[in-house]
């Protein structure tokens, strides 16, 4: 079975926007084990569109089209599909009612051009659009089933999930559908996948570590870098959903066993979501004292809904005067050691924890570049410190872990990597495991952990 | 003249990565007025690749290929191009030397597979890769000139700019090249474009405002939304570079005249870069007091290299206790009016300005959602305040402008929009023009500006 994706729009071929729709469609097809073999983009030009539709009808089983369903003159997909295959256009009353209702609900007048969105080729199966005015449609032509969908990514996603994938599934399993599939009586295989998010180990090391798991053949193991994380994607193909899920579960457990805390989350979990979940569970709070990250750690923590339950606030201490006045860092220490130093970053973490009355205080001070480095303190150097309650029995005492790294990356990469290490330290501390930096980084100085409570 | 883009790689058709390369190539071709008519993506499959190359040779003048030049088994572009057109492969000594030198420079051993990257089809023109190991190449076949380039975006960009575009330009102007073009003796047209960044006016209003300029036909006027900004792109086609540039300049001036401060920058200028430039010029400083934006304003300001010259720091005051202790907001005022209120946001802006000793203090307090709203204070409500020196003659006095908005957008959209209004207020204040909110927003309450110094 062969799938083909056709994306339509002048803006795609002029490079005015990046076409993310083909990836959105393709990753969903992969989960049905559908081989997406052809991908074509064409201009809003009837001749080019006809050519693409005709070729697709001859070589593919499922043709997924995105774009050209809007109300403007440039939007010609429906009409050109009808022309290509010699079909008349026909009003779909039900869609007209829905489009009229949509305009009423947002308090706008419906213009005549929107009427055109309720016309479809004869015998088309109309696909609902629950959040926009452009319904999609499906027709069968020769060996191929065509699905025409809107180009707006959110509308496309919903239509793929709610309307298109169920129809493709029924087409793939025509006799008994899902039941046959889940009982393993179908000839088709199902595909299941999961995304494991890792931080702290380079991609080639990951591959080496997991080589034997990949070789066992239970799953295909995909790798992708999403700086500063590396993503692992076990994909299992099996005759039943249950068997595929069981394989994914076995391999995921083996990977977690092998990599330990390097795996920090699954699916859409970001580091800040994972940290927020742990802080909420343990009813602990955090405050931030940022120099080189300039507010990025606070921004990431507060990006999570409900973060006010554990995030009290922070200080962005960019100037030395602010480090002294707002965080209580001694001016003598600043003078003697400089802002990017262990004593200063410790004082920042301990200062913010004390002044905000939080359980944790995290601090950063570094040289993100591109300029500002010296021989002793090169561009890329950063000191991090995490202040926290000392181990039990030492009431009211603070334990502070500090370490330095040199990250040889761009300014924005430096800020991003530093904020990720900071959040990862909070996570590791909440899990009671060792605070380490990522293995891909070069260490600038020794770590120090005088209280020893973190080992 | 017709251009075609072919991107190669299983990962593209599986939706594992979003293919930004075709946009990178297409936007560069547009500047040569080259019509990019076809765009195709194919698997790492020799039969599919041959099919695509053969079809391109028959219908296009310039064929731009990206991907498949690496050292691994999956990388087959060079070999398949040679096979498709019946050419032998030949070692290019010069490239071998360069690849060997590259490995020496990064202190790694060169493996045998990298040798393959120095082989090209007979009569190929080798394209330099100044930052990676994969050179590209160009061959002529029938009416078409093929350019094969690496898939790594940074390598692709450089090779397009340094190696491919000059060759296409020479091909387009074979007799006298650029000279003929700049003197208008060529039959070809040149294309020049500029990007104007606007904030505060909706796209349809912009289109209406500029309708007559677009109609005059000196330029094509493109519109694109990059939330929360709208981007305008005048594109001029003319017989000479000078004439095209003059058209762009005339139309840009007319647009700025019409829209005033709505146009805040050009090209890659972000709002934070523009604000930083103005603060540096006027030797003024800023400090931030953020509640709902959670550090985003500070993060954006410090994203700009050199921001330590004008950004002193900030407080992320997420909890009420922190608003009181770190910014000096009175607990009675917090109690009476609530955190999202005019008195509180004023006190935050004035408090951070005083405590940090900065010229400007900007503050935000709002309900970004998805929950936390009440009937009086719905999700989306936000108060902003900008504290600054009062007008001349009122020594040491503070003038504070405060206003509220309701932004009916997602949590991250709310934070992004609020931070943009905040930065825009600083910009407007530095330019001595009225502080306004974007016209696309609904106002929740009246603005107030007791000192009147900002009008």
What would you say this structure looks like, in words?
The structure is a homodimer of 455-residue chains. Chain A is α/β, with parallel strands linked by helices. The first copy, chain A, has three domains: 2-172, Molybdenum Cofactor Biosythetic Enzyme, Chain A (3-Layer(aba) Sandwich); 190-266, Alpha-Beta Plaits (2-Layer Sandwich), CATH 3.30.70.2860; 271-443, Alpha-Beta Complex (Maf protein), CATH 3.90.950.20. Helix content of chain A is 39%, strand content 24%. In chain A, the strands form four sheets. In chain A, strands 2-1-3-8-7-6 form a six-stranded mixed beta sheet, with helices on both faces. A six-stranded mixed beta sheet of chain A has the order 15-14-16-17-18-19, with helices on both faces. In chain A, strands 9, 10, 11, 12 and 13 form a five-stranded antiparallel beta sheet that branches. Mean pLDDT of chain A is 88; it is low at 440-455. Chains A and B meet through α2, β2, α13, β15 and α14 of A and α2, β2, α13, β15 and α14 of B. β15 of chain A pairs antiparallel with β15 (311-317) of chain B.
């Amino acid at each position: 079975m062969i799938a083909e994706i056709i994306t339509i729009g002048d803006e795609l071929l002029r490079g005015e926007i990046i076409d993310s729709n083909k990836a959105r469609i393709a990753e969903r097809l992969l989960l049905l084990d559908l081989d997406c073999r052809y991908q074509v983009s064409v201009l809003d030009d009837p001749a080019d569109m006809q050519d693409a539709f005709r070729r697709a009808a001859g070589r593919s089983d499922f043709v997924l089209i995105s774009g050209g369903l809007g109300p403007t003159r440039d939007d010609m997909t429906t009409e050109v599909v009808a022309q290509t295959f010699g079909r008349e256009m026909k009003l779909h009353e039900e869609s007209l009612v829905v489009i009229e209702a949509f305009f009423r609900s947002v308090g706008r007048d419906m213009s005549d051009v929107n009427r055109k969105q309720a016309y479809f080729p004869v015998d088309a199966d109309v696909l609902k659009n629950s959040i926009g005015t452009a319904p999609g449609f499906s027709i069968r032509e020769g060996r191929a089933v065509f699905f025409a969908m809107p180009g707006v990514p959110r509308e496309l996603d919903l239509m793929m999930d709610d309307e298109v994938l169920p129809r493709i599934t029924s087409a793939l399993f025509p006799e008994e559908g899902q039941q046959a599939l889940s009982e393993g009586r179908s000839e088709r295989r199902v595909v299941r996948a999961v995304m494991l998010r890792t931080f702290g180990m380079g991609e080639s090391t990951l591959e080496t570590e997991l080589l034997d798991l990949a070789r066992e053949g239970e799953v295909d193991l995909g790798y992708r870098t999403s700086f500063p994380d590396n993503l692992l994607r076990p994909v299992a193909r099996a005759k039943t959903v249950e068997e595929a899920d069981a394989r994914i579960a076995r391999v995921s457990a083996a990977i977690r066993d092998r990599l330990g805390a390097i795996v920090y989350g699954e699916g859409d979990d970001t580091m800040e979501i994972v940290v927020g979940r742990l802080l909420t569970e343990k009813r602990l709070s955090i405050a931030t004292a940022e120099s080189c990250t300039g507010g990025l750690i606070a921004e990431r923590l507060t990006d999570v809904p409900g973060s006010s339950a554990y995030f009290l606030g922070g200080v962005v201490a960019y100037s030395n005067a602010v480090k002294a006045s707002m965080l209580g860092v001694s001016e003598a220490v600043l003078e003697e050691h400089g802002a990017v130093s262990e004593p200063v970053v410790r004082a920042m973490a301990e200062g913010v924890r004390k002044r905000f009355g939080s359980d944790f205080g995290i601090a950063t001070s570094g040289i993100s570049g591109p300029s500002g480095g010296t021989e002793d303190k090169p561009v890329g150097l950063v000191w991090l410190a995490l202040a926290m309650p000392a181990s039990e029995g030492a009431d009211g005492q603070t334990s502070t872990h500090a370490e330095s790294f040199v990250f040889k990356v761009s300014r924005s990469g430096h800020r991003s990597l530093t904020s990720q290490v900071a959040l990862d330290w909070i996570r590791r501390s909440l899990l009671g495991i060792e605070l380490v930096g990522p293995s891909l980084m070069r260490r600038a100085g020794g770590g120090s952990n005088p209280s020893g409570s973190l080992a």
